[in-house]
Amino acid sequence: MAMNQPQPTSMTSEPSQTPAPQAVTPKMRASNVSFYYGKFRALHDISLEFATNKVTALIGPSGCGKSTFLRNLNRINETLRDTRIEGEITLDGQNILDKDVTEIRRRIGMVFQRPNPFPKSIFENIIYGPRINGMLRRRQSAAELVEKSLRRAALWDEVKDKLHDSAYALSGGQQQRLCIARALAVDPEVLLLDEPCSALDPIATAKIEDLLVTIKEQCTIVIVTHNMQQAARVADTTGFFLLGKLIEHDKTDVIFKNPSKKETEDYITGRFG
Amino acid sequence: MATPSAAVPQASSIPKRRFGGDEVAYGITLLFSLSILAITVLLVYELWQHSALTRDKFGLGFIGSKLWNPVTSQFGALPFIYGTVITSILALLISVPLGVGAAIYLSELATSKVSNTLTFLVELLAAVPSVIFGLLAIFTVIPLMRDYIEPAIQSIAGFLPLFSGRIGAGAGYLTAGAILAIMTFPYIISVSREALMAVPREQREAALALGATKWESTWDAVLPFARLGIMGSVFLALARALGETMAVTMVIGNDRVIHTSLFAPGYTIAAVIANEFAEAEGNMHLSALIELGLVLFALTMVINGLAQLLIIVTTKKGSAKG
Amino acid sequence: MTSRNSRRNTVNNVMLTLCGICVFVTVSTLFVILAYLIYNGGKSVNLDFFTKLPQPPGQLGGGMANAIVGSAEIVLLATMIGLPIGFFAGIYLAEFGNKTMQFLIRYTADLLNGIPSIVIGIFAWTVIVVRTHHFSALAGGVALSLMLIPITARSTEQFLLEVPRSLREGALALGANKWRTIATVIVPAAGKGIMTGMILGVARISGETAPLLFTSLNNQFWSTGLSEPTASLPVMIYNDAIAPYDDLHRQAWAAGLVLLGLVLLANIAARMVISRGTSLPR
Questions:
Q1: Is the entire prediction scored with pTM above 0.90?
Q2: What is the C-alpha radius of gyration for chain B, rounded to an integer number of angstroms?
Q3: How far is the CA of C209 from the CAs of B2, B91, C21, in angstroms?
Q4: What are the chain B neighbours of C179 within 8 Å (beta carbons)?
């Protein structure tokens, strides 16, 4: 995976075939989303689409609201006191704010900034999500599911002999991949990652960035990052946040080489942030 | 540059540090601190010395013997150890589920203002003198037990030997256990709540993000993480229950025999000392009572030590790893 | 919503409600206690209670004047012995001392703290009553002081440690030596906390009964001086509660109300002054 050049994504359909019969609905869409911590308005009228099986990166300086926005996509911000959301967030066209939250969170998974495995074994960590969601009764046995998830997270070879050891025995990078495997075990359609590599060294970071390319084939990915190079490396489209507003959202290539807003350009060129 | 003035103090004209101040302060505070050590050592020594008579006569058999008869100078600690342990276990069986449940509410569900106010009220319970619990127990809990609760339990579970005895006056192991449970609430609730609040937010969010309900995330992610601290609270409560004197004395029924039924009257180490010490008949009797005190001291020392250890481990590491 | 999810949501609601019930049950015990005491004790608390001596059972009237004064004597004695020792020991723990000494003293203080109060009573008995051949207020006061010392030491230490480093360094940088810094800067800075710690400690020991049972014993009349058996509120409550006479029960309720009122007031006042995490003795 090239470390410098962003990979341009092709948005045109094959020339000689007829284009897809119906318009491609984005996997998720946020419409006029505003979010309040008490009286403080942290997000202003955010509207944004996330295309299916693509990686979208959200960048911006500290405190710009990108993490807050991400955490609203799986409604985990609801667990904070005195918060309020306005607007609509849809998954496959249906507003997630109206639906049963536990089902939403199974379909939209999240990986956090610092690895947060449970104080249990590696096996138990992965099996937890499927167990509470009743997914174990289907064809797959628990052991199969654990292996499949660990392979998707590129962790299987490293831990296959110590599945019943404590998760805390793993290194930081391994723990984060465990958290990714844990999130993938419930077969989510969308995976949200909140600065997943900020606590990791460059090698661990590279491993996780490589993962995202393979995971996106089955998942739509949204990743918040404060590292612009990371966005350039992994993302198909990028959104730039500033002071709670979405300033610009476009193909990554465009954002980094030819942004249309001055604020975006200032951030990209390092004038602030 | 101005020429340096001639006012630079010479080394010999800076006054020498006055002797006194710091050394005296050190000495005084050290002295008083050492007195704490001295008191504790002296306490163990005195207990040991004054129990010599019965220790020499009965040896370790003291702990296993069931007979306590001051008139014939037969002394055995078993009925009291039994009563102490049974009432404490009963107390924990009641107060741990209630207390941990309350702690969960206070840590996970209540807003911080409500949580702090309610916790303050619960901690006030710990300030209520034990004799007042006893006073209330005699006139309110005992009739309640005798007329309503014990008959109800007996009608449901009377086939078990634990619940099959005669319901007498209402004083007995069960009543004492119930009072002790109330007295230990504050310890369980306060310490468990702190242990739960110390669980990092990310643990809860990890479970919630996988689709868990709030209860599932509390039971599966938060509680296991806080288990060491909660265990510490249980040991703390246990130590308190073992040594509790007045409230238990007033409701245990003062019977020196071991009964299997929980409705039967019994005795605890602290209660028998409280009742018999002031009018003890002879040095042998006194020695036996003091040896009982030694046993109680050792018991509470061990349990308290474990509690401190668990609490230190949780506050230092801030987690229950592994 | 799937049926599995609705079941999970029901379990969620039920369990969380149960937890709320647990809080209700535990918090309400405090109010139940207060209610009973106010109801039963309020009827019997009158001027006589505070001014008269106990009457033999069967005769109405009478009070607990001797117990109130006796308690005050014993607690005052305990305070005069226990507070200074605890205070200075606390200073040692926070400001002087090397790691080993600190560990040792803290460990023994916590040990002493955890000893059941009846065992403390036995110790005071062996040290004073045996040697002086009679029960006395002195013995009772000493017994209570033994409980007050570790409480005061640990709480003083905690509050001293909370004084920020910058304050100490500010004083030292001005040329003050260590004891002056402690006496004029650190202790006053922690003063509020230390005082409330002391108040809480005194409130705690004034409700203790077990250590007094065979040290200061009891007395139906006034005691002269410190070397006689002396009445105290907690012991009177105990004796009256277990006696078979209704009159004495009434006295017990009244005394209970007075004692609890004082103890709770002290605790609430102390907590108002400092609102820190927990005030439980550990």
A1: no
A2: 27
A3: 77, 21, 33
A4: 21-22, 24-25
